[in-house]
Design a protein that fits this description.
single chain, alpha/beta, 2 domains, seven-stranded mixed beta sheet, two-stranded antiparallel sheet, 9 helices, globular
Length: 214
């Protein structure tokens, strides 16, 4: 079983809850334009939302994967930190579990600026660094350790490591790419948004920056 299949088996309940909350928070209306940065057609097929959805992924291969079973959605290969759209081009900008993948703090700042610039209403979700399980590795506490310790532990002491058996280069690439965010950092990135919390077992599992309708 790959890690993606493992998540596919356990994530539908979380996706349904998130979509219900998305509807309540940003109130998408029929015919509105939605930009999904880093999303997939499958997410919107399950949503039941009648809107014109444009899906951005960072290169053509990712865009093609996102387009599988696409229907009428538009797909654009672009960097979420430099979106090729005018200010306020979309009624809603949506992004789930992407901002933690763009690299370091400077690129996360750029991603947040672009999201706030292009979308009139916002929904940007990301896993909480404070949660005790690192969701990409499926391992407790490892993301709180210094990087040299993480490099030694990822291959043999995480679910992702057991399944994928990454080499040293793959481990370094993961650590360069993924940076989980704290609450204070989300508040700094999205100062004009409300930061909601997704909870699991009473603990904050992820944060959602929401700029609702005026």
């Amino acid at each position: 079983m790959t890690l993606h299949r493992l998540y596919g088996a356990i994530s539908p309940v979380f996706r349904r809850r998130r979509m219900q909350r998305f509807r309540a928070a940003v109130s998408p209306l029929p015919g509105e334009r939605i930009l999904d940065v880093g999303g997939t057609a499958a997410f919107w097929a399950e949503s039941g939302i009648d809107a014109a959805v444009t899906i951005v992924n960072r290169d053509r291969a990712d865009a093609g994967l996102a387009a599988a079973g696409a229907g009428a959605h538009d797909f654009v290969a672009a960097d979420g930190c430099a979106l090729p759209f005018a200010d306020g081009s979309f009624d809603v900008l949506c992004s789930n579990s992407v901002i933690e993948h763009v690299g370091g703090w400077e690129r996360q700042q750029a991603f947040a600026r672009e999201a706030r610039r292009v979308g009139r209403r916002l929904w940007v979700q990301t896993p909480a660094r404070e949660f005790f399980v690192e969701p990409h590795l499926v391992a407790p506490f490892i993301h709180w350790l210094p990087r040299p310790w993480q490099r030694r532990l990822i291959r043999n002491f995480t679910v992702r490591g057991w399944i994928e058996r990454p080499g040293a280069a793959a481990v370094d690439a993961f650590l360069d790419e993924v940076r989980l965010l704290r609450l204070a950092e989300m508040q700094a990135l999205f100062p004009d948004c409300t930061i909601l919390r997704e909870r699991f077992l009473g603990l904050t599992k992820s944060y959602i920056a929401v700029r609702p309708p005026p």
